Amino acid sequence: MSVAPLFQRVVIGAAESSLDVAGSALLPGAWPIVKGALTPVLDRLKQRFGGQDVTASKQLATEAASLFERDEHLQELFRTNLLAALDPVVRGQREISQDVEKLMLIALGNTRALEDLLGGVTRIEEVLAGGVSLKPDDMEKLAVTVARYVKANDQTRAIAQQEMREVAGELIKRQAARIEARAVELIREHKLERAADEVREGLVLVSVLLNEAPSDANVKVLLGYFYKAMAQIFSETDNKLEAGLYLDRASEVFELVKDVIPADKKTIDNVASAINGLGDVYYGRGEFERAIDNFRIATTLAPTYANAWHDMFGAYVGLACAGKINLKEMRHALQKTKETGQGIPGLDAGYIAQLEDTLRGWEQQVEQP
After folding, report:
1. Is residue 160 part of a domain?
2. Cα 136 from Cα 309, distance rounded (Å)
3. 207 plus 92 within the same structural domain
4. Quick check: is 259 in a domain?
5. Which long-range contacts link 286-293 to residues 24+ away (Cβ below 8 Å)?
6. Is 37 part of any domain?
7. I want to staple 295 with a disulfide (CB 3.0 to 4.6 A). Which of 60, 78, 223, 312 is the partner?
8. Would the pLDDT of 292 be above 60?
9. Which of 134, 160, 188 is the last residue of a domain?
10. Whole-angstrom Cα distance, residue 18 to residue 86?
11. Using one digit for the tens of pLDDT, what is the confidence trace for 161-179?
12. pTM across the whole model
């Protein structure tokens, strides 16, 4: 028995009225339980839909319901939350409301215990429409089954938390950095939908880490770069409003790192990265000279910072397009990019060759009468 139909009816109903109205109409006696279990799922979907509330329109709600039906992990997140909320409600109670009874059946899903109780698998639509008549002994078995599943979930979570404490932070951080590099490559290749998917995944990863340790400067810098990448995607699709919003978010994050983190030996790379990120924000707004000022500071703090040299080259190209050609600084930035960028994702030989072609184009333009 899937939880997807319950999610679909609540969320699409919420788009037509409101979340509380739709949920209370469907399971009035159990709506507080459902709402508490549903909220983290809706928050996760909001992130995946670029910050949009999926109950804001019927179209968004339908898309969210379709995504939920395909995503088994989201379904199990919802089921886990339902079981955890049901356990204290039903434990030791002699009388359980019909709505809570329905919810227990839905939350347990296609388990052997449920099949034994019902004599076969029942479709969720049948449960929601009329419920299932159970004997008192069966209700007690149902409550015990819920408790057993909650205990198993808690034991599994304890094992997972031990693993997370030992390795998850660094693993997620490395994965987020790889996703950011891949997103940049996809943007260069103009594969914007795939790039947006990568950025959304990266935003989820860094949000998990920052929720646990909001003082981690390295992760904050990554968050800023994901915002910058999302701004670039919207800019490529000529959505200037969304691009501006994400540039503002990136700027806010980079300012936090630059102003709060002291520039000591341990954190100098984070500060340089934040300042470079501010340069990228100015670049995204077309303020190339201000961008170059930030790139210069970043490369002064970290002379081997290949991406900052690369971004500086791009800013000089932007200035050239605006009629201010500075071949000397353009050549210097590209040369430093090549010297410091060996082995860095996104700065492979093929891409460097493209930058050299760009430089030659400007050199030829200056040489011609």
Report:
1. no
2. 73
3. no
4. yes
5. 286/318, 288/315, 288/316, 288/318, 288/319, 288/322, 289/319, 291/315, 291/318, 292/316, 292/319
6. yes
7. 312
8. yes
9. 134
10. 24
11. 666 655 566 777 788 888 8
12. 0.55
